Amino acid sequence: MKIDYGEPFVGKAGKLMNMAFQILGIKREEVYIANIVKCRPPMNRNPEKDECEACINYLRNQVVLIKPNIIVLLGSVALKNILGQEYGITSSRGKWIEKQGIKYMPTWHPAALLRDETKKIDFINDLQLVLEEVNNENNR
Q1: What's 12-138's CATH class?
Q2: Residue ranges covered by each domain of the chain
Q3: Rg of the chain over all Cα atoms, to the nearest angstrom
Q4: Which of 38, 72, 83, 91 has a CA-to-CA distance to 60 between 20 and 30 Å?
Q5: Phi, psi angles (nearest 5°) of residue 4
Q6: What is the pTM of this model?
């Protein structure tokens, strides 16, 4: 029986993300992590449109409360639900997209790294870009 701790990224993908954070000197406690949907879909599949729609306002309220300058979008589901269906993760990852005063960095979902290890370099590079932008903002 698999236990759901109610926290995002606690499985194998989360461990991989934590390793990337460690490589870059980021403490997980220093970032706020949220999911599009607030419960795990059956069989850990991607959430369906109606599931995303049911939870998206909760996520939007989290963003309003936290007021982030930068949001990292992990994977296609996050990218499409936050910025729009016209975006694709392959063409958008690693590129800054700015909307309404927030800078977005789309990158691979950590689960994608488990399926294709060649994406790990992109993932680390994308997070490095985020870290550089955070440091630039802190020095302004």
Answers
A1: alpha beta
A2: 12-138
A3: 15
A4: 91
A5: -100, 115
A6: 0.91
